[in-house]
Protein backbone atom coordinates (compact mmCIF):
# COMPACT_ATOMS: atom_id res chain seq x y z
CA UNK A 1 0.00 0.00 0.00
CA UNK A 2 1.24 3.47 -0.94
CA UNK A 3 1.08 5.86 2.02
CA UNK A 4 0.95 8.86 -0.34
CA UNK A 5 -2.21 7.51 -1.98
CA UNK A 6 -3.86 5.88 1.05
CA UNK A 7 -7.18 7.53 1.90
CA UNK A 8 -6.93 10.05 -0.94
CA UNK A 9 -9.96 10.75 -3.13
CA UNK A 10 -8.97 10.36 -6.78
CA UNK A 11 -11.33 11.51 -9.54
CA UNK A 12 -10.80 9.60 -12.79
CA UNK A 13 -12.59 10.45 -16.05
CA UNK A 14 -13.05 7.95 -18.86
CA UNK A 15 -12.99 5.22 -16.22
CA UNK A 16 -15.21 2.53 -17.73
CA UNK A 17 -12.49 0.75 -19.73
CA UNK A 18 -8.87 0.77 -20.85
CA UNK A 19 -6.44 2.88 -18.87
CA UNK A 20 -9.28 4.36 -16.81
CA UNK A 21 -10.41 1.08 -15.27
CA UNK A 22 -6.82 0.13 -14.42
CA UNK A 23 -6.27 3.55 -12.84
CA UNK A 24 -9.25 2.81 -10.60
CA UNK A 25 -7.92 -0.64 -9.69
CA UNK A 26 -4.40 0.58 -8.87
CA UNK A 27 -5.73 3.56 -6.92
CA UNK A 28 -7.84 1.20 -4.77
CA UNK A 29 -4.98 -1.30 -4.44
CA UNK A 30 -2.81 1.50 -3.06
CA UNK A 31 -5.48 2.48 -0.53
CA UNK A 32 -7.00 5.37 -2.44
CA UNK A 33 -10.69 6.11 -2.92
CA UNK A 34 -11.55 6.07 -6.64
CA UNK A 35 -14.30 8.35 -7.95
CA UNK A 36 -15.11 7.23 -11.48
CA UNK A 37 -16.80 9.06 -14.34
CA UNK A 38 -17.91 7.70 -17.72
CA UNK A 39 -20.99 7.22 -19.88
CA UNK A 40 -21.27 3.45 -19.42
CA UNK A 41 -23.09 2.93 -16.12
CA UNK A 42 -23.09 -0.85 -16.55
CA UNK A 43 -19.30 -0.93 -16.79
CA UNK A 44 -18.85 1.52 -13.92
CA UNK A 45 -21.09 -0.55 -11.66
CA UNK A 46 -19.13 -3.73 -12.46
CA UNK A 47 -15.75 -2.07 -11.85
CA UNK A 48 -16.97 -0.52 -8.60
CA UNK A 49 -18.26 -3.85 -7.31
CA UNK A 50 -15.04 -5.67 -8.25
CA UNK A 51 -12.94 -3.05 -6.46
CA UNK A 52 -15.10 -3.26 -3.33
CA UNK A 53 -14.89 -7.07 -3.35
CA UNK A 54 -11.13 -7.22 -4.07
CA UNK A 55 -9.81 -4.39 -1.91
CA UNK A 56 -12.57 -3.55 0.56
CA UNK A 57 -12.59 0.02 -0.75
CA UNK A 58 -15.71 2.01 -1.57
CA UNK A 59 -15.54 3.04 -5.21
CA UNK A 60 -17.89 5.83 -6.22
CA UNK A 61 -19.10 6.38 -9.76
CA UNK A 62 -21.02 8.97 -11.76
CA UNK A 63 -22.56 8.88 -15.22
CA UNK A 64 -21.65 11.78 -17.50
CA UNK A 65 -21.19 12.60 -21.16
CA UNK A 66 -18.12 14.81 -21.10
CA UNK A 67 -18.92 16.20 -24.54
CA UNK A 68 -21.97 17.89 -22.99
CA UNK A 69 -20.48 20.81 -21.09
CA UNK A 70 -23.60 21.79 -19.13
CA UNK A 71 -24.22 18.20 -18.03
CA UNK A 72 -20.57 17.68 -17.06
CA UNK A 73 -20.49 20.94 -15.05
CA UNK A 74 -23.51 19.77 -13.05
CA UNK A 75 -21.93 16.36 -12.40
CA UNK A 76 -18.70 17.98 -11.15
CA UNK A 77 -20.76 20.16 -8.80
CA UNK A 78 -22.49 17.03 -7.50
CA UNK A 79 -19.18 15.24 -6.98
CA UNK A 80 -17.80 18.19 -5.01
CA UNK A 81 -20.99 18.36 -2.92
CA UNK A 82 -20.94 14.61 -2.22
CA UNK A 83 -17.25 14.37 -1.32
CA UNK A 84 -16.31 17.78 0.06
CA UNK A 85 -12.82 17.74 -1.35
CA UNK A 86 -10.89 15.89 -4.04
CA UNK A 87 -7.19 15.11 -3.62
CA UNK A 88 -6.25 14.19 -7.18
CA UNK A 89 -7.73 14.55 -10.63
CA UNK A 90 -6.78 12.27 -13.53
CA UNK A 91 -8.14 13.70 -16.79
CA UNK A 92 -8.09 10.43 -18.69
CA UNK A 93 -11.14 10.68 -20.98
CA UNK A 94 -10.28 11.01 -24.65
CA UNK A 95 -11.33 9.92 -28.11
CA UNK A 96 -10.21 10.12 -31.71
CA UNK A 97 -11.36 9.57 -35.25
CA UNK A 98 -8.41 9.22 -37.61
CA UNK A 99 -9.14 10.85 -40.94
CA UNK A 100 -7.70 13.27 -43.46
CA UNK A 101 -8.82 16.80 -42.61
CA UNK A 102 -10.51 17.11 -46.01
CA UNK A 103 -12.53 13.94 -45.33
CA UNK A 104 -13.30 14.54 -41.64
CA UNK A 105 -16.89 15.00 -40.47
CA UNK A 106 -17.43 18.17 -38.48
CA UNK A 107 -19.30 16.30 -35.72
CA UNK A 108 -16.19 14.15 -35.20
CA UNK A 109 -13.96 17.23 -35.01
CA UNK A 110 -16.35 18.92 -32.60
CA UNK A 111 -16.55 15.86 -30.35
CA UNK A 112 -12.75 15.48 -30.21
CA UNK A 113 -12.43 19.11 -29.17
CA UNK A 114 -15.24 18.76 -26.61
CA UNK A 115 -13.98 15.54 -24.97
CA UNK A 116 -10.21 15.92 -25.28
CA UNK A 117 -9.89 19.64 -24.64
CA UNK A 118 -12.98 21.44 -23.39
CA UNK A 119 -14.01 18.85 -20.79
CA UNK A 120 -10.45 18.67 -19.48
CA UNK A 121 -10.35 22.46 -19.16
CA UNK A 122 -13.79 22.41 -17.50
CA UNK A 123 -12.87 19.79 -14.91
CA UNK A 124 -9.58 21.44 -14.03
CA UNK A 125 -11.04 24.95 -13.92
CA UNK A 126 -13.87 23.82 -11.65
CA UNK A 127 -11.70 21.81 -9.23
CA UNK A 128 -8.67 24.10 -9.13
CA UNK A 129 -10.16 26.51 -6.53
CA UNK A 130 -10.65 23.51 -4.20
CA UNK A 131 -7.02 22.48 -4.64
CA UNK A 132 -5.83 26.05 -4.05
CA UNK A 133 -7.96 26.36 -0.93
CA UNK A 134 -6.58 23.06 0.39
CA UNK A 135 -3.04 24.05 -0.54
CA UNK A 136 -2.49 20.60 -2.05
CA UNK A 137 -3.57 18.34 -4.89
CA UNK A 138 -2.39 16.64 -8.04
CA UNK A 139 -3.69 17.12 -11.58
CA UNK A 140 -2.70 14.46 -14.11
CA UNK A 141 -3.57 15.03 -17.76
CA UNK A 142 -3.38 12.05 -20.10
CA UNK A 143 -1.93 13.56 -23.26
CA UNK A 144 -0.13 11.75 -26.08
CA UNK A 145 3.10 11.55 -28.00
CA UNK A 146 0.85 12.79 -30.82
CA UNK A 147 0.79 16.10 -28.97
CA UNK A 148 4.51 16.37 -29.61
CA UNK A 149 4.66 14.80 -33.07
CA UNK A 150 1.67 15.01 -35.41
CA UNK A 151 1.10 12.54 -38.24
CA UNK A 152 -1.26 12.32 -41.24
CA UNK A 153 -4.89 11.44 -40.45
CA UNK A 154 -4.43 12.60 -36.85
CA UNK A 155 -4.18 16.36 -37.42
CA UNK A 156 -7.26 17.13 -35.29
CA UNK A 157 -6.44 14.57 -32.60
CA UNK A 158 -2.83 15.81 -32.44
CA UNK A 159 -4.08 19.40 -32.18
CA UNK A 160 -6.23 18.48 -29.19
CA UNK A 161 -3.26 16.88 -27.47
CA UNK A 162 -1.04 19.87 -28.35
CA UNK A 163 -3.67 21.93 -26.51
CA UNK A 164 -3.56 19.60 -23.51
CA UNK A 165 0.24 19.84 -23.32
CA UNK A 166 0.23 23.63 -23.60
CA UNK A 167 -2.43 23.90 -20.93
CA UNK A 168 -0.63 21.46 -18.64
CA UNK A 169 2.74 23.18 -18.94
CA UNK A 170 1.31 26.63 -18.31
CA UNK A 171 -0.81 25.44 -15.38
CA UNK A 172 2.15 23.68 -13.80
CA UNK A 173 4.09 26.93 -13.61
CA UNK A 174 1.09 28.80 -12.21
CA UNK A 175 0.55 26.47 -9.25
CA UNK A 176 3.94 24.88 -8.58
CA UNK A 177 4.53 27.06 -5.50
CA UNK A 178 1.03 26.48 -4.13
CA UNK A 179 1.35 22.82 -3.18
CA UNK A 180 -0.25 21.47 -6.34
CA UNK A 181 1.46 19.01 -8.66
CA UNK A 182 0.68 18.93 -12.39
CA UNK A 183 1.80 16.05 -14.62
CA UNK A 184 1.30 15.23 -18.29
CA UNK A 185 1.29 11.61 -19.43
CA UNK A 186 2.45 11.33 -23.02
CA UNK A 187 1.70 7.93 -24.49
CA UNK A 188 2.25 6.06 -27.69
CA UNK A 189 -0.47 3.63 -28.85
CA UNK A 190 -2.07 1.70 -25.98
CA UNK A 191 -3.83 -1.66 -26.30
CA UNK A 192 -7.40 -0.50 -25.58
CA UNK A 193 -10.71 -0.19 -27.44
CA UNK A 194 -9.70 3.39 -28.32
CA UNK A 195 -8.88 2.29 -31.86
CA UNK A 196 -12.30 0.76 -32.49
CA UNK A 197 -13.56 4.30 -32.97
CA UNK A 198 -10.32 5.98 -34.02
CA UNK A 199 -9.66 3.56 -36.89
CA UNK A 200 -12.52 1.09 -37.49
CA UNK A 201 -10.58 -0.50 -40.37
CA UNK A 202 -8.16 -1.96 -37.83
CA UNK A 203 -5.19 -1.21 -40.08
CA UNK A 204 -3.38 1.08 -37.64
CA UNK A 205 -3.95 -1.21 -34.67
CA UNK A 206 -2.64 -4.16 -36.67
CA UNK A 207 0.44 -2.21 -37.82
CA UNK A 208 1.19 -1.07 -34.26
CA UNK A 209 0.34 -4.33 -32.51
CA UNK A 210 3.92 -5.28 -31.56
CA UNK A 211 4.67 -1.94 -29.90
CA UNK A 212 1.39 -1.21 -28.14
CA UNK A 213 1.57 -0.32 -24.47
CA UNK A 214 -0.15 -2.36 -21.79
CA UNK A 215 -2.87 -0.17 -20.14
CA UNK A 216 -2.31 -1.93 -16.81
CA UNK A 217 1.38 -0.92 -16.83
CA UNK A 218 0.51 2.66 -17.81
CA UNK A 219 -2.02 2.95 -14.98
CA UNK A 220 0.47 1.56 -12.46
CA UNK A 221 3.04 4.18 -13.46
CA UNK A 222 0.50 6.99 -13.16
CA UNK A 223 -0.87 5.99 -9.75
CA UNK A 224 2.64 5.34 -8.44
CA UNK A 225 3.61 8.90 -9.39
CA UNK A 226 0.72 10.57 -7.55
CA UNK A 227 1.62 13.27 -5.05
CA UNK A 228 5.19 13.47 -6.31
CA UNK A 229 6.75 16.25 -8.35
CA UNK A 230 6.85 14.67 -11.79
CA UNK A 231 6.66 16.92 -14.82
CA UNK A 232 5.98 14.22 -17.42
CA UNK A 233 5.54 10.49 -17.82
CA UNK A 234 6.62 9.46 -21.32
CA UNK A 235 5.92 5.98 -22.67
CA UNK A 236 7.43 4.19 -24.48
CA UNK A 237 10.88 5.69 -23.91
CA UNK A 238 12.03 5.14 -27.51
CA UNK A 239 9.02 7.03 -28.87
CA UNK A 240 9.74 9.90 -26.50
CA UNK A 241 13.29 10.00 -27.87
CA UNK A 242 11.79 10.18 -31.36
CA UNK A 243 9.59 13.11 -30.29
CA UNK A 244 12.61 14.96 -28.95
CA UNK A 245 14.55 14.39 -32.15
CA UNK A 246 11.52 15.54 -34.14
CA UNK A 247 11.50 18.84 -32.25
CA UNK A 248 15.12 19.37 -33.31
CA UNK A 249 14.86 18.19 -36.92
CA UNK A 250 11.19 17.96 -37.97
CA UNK A 251 11.78 18.06 -41.72
CA UNK A 252 14.33 15.25 -41.57
CA UNK A 253 12.08 13.13 -39.35
CA UNK A 254 9.07 13.63 -41.61
CA UNK A 255 11.16 12.50 -44.57
CA UNK A 256 12.78 9.50 -42.88
CA UNK A 257 9.59 8.37 -41.10
CA UNK A 258 7.15 9.04 -43.94
CA UNK A 259 6.15 5.38 -44.32
CA UNK A 260 5.58 4.90 -40.59
CA UNK A 261 3.67 8.19 -40.30
CA UNK A 262 1.25 7.05 -43.00
CA UNK A 263 0.26 3.76 -41.40
CA UNK A 264 -3.20 4.96 -40.39
Automatic annotation (TrEMBL):
Signal peptide: none annotated. Pfam families: adh_short (PF00106). SUPFAM superfamilies: NAD(P)-binding Rossmann-fold domains. Keywords: Oxidoreductase. GO terms for cellular component: membrane. It comes from the Bacteria. GO terms for molecular function: oxidoreductase activity. Belongs to the short-chain dehydrogenases/reductases (SDR) family. This is Oxidoreductase. It comes from Halobacillus mangrovi.
Amino acid sequence: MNERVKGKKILITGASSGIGQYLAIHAAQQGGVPILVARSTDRLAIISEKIKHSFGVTCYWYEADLSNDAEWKDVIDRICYDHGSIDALVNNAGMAVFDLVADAKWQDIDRMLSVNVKSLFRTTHQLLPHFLQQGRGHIVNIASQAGKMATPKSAIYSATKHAVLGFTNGLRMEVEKKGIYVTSVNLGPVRTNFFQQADPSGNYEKAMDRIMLDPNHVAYKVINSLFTRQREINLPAWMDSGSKFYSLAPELMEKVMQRQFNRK
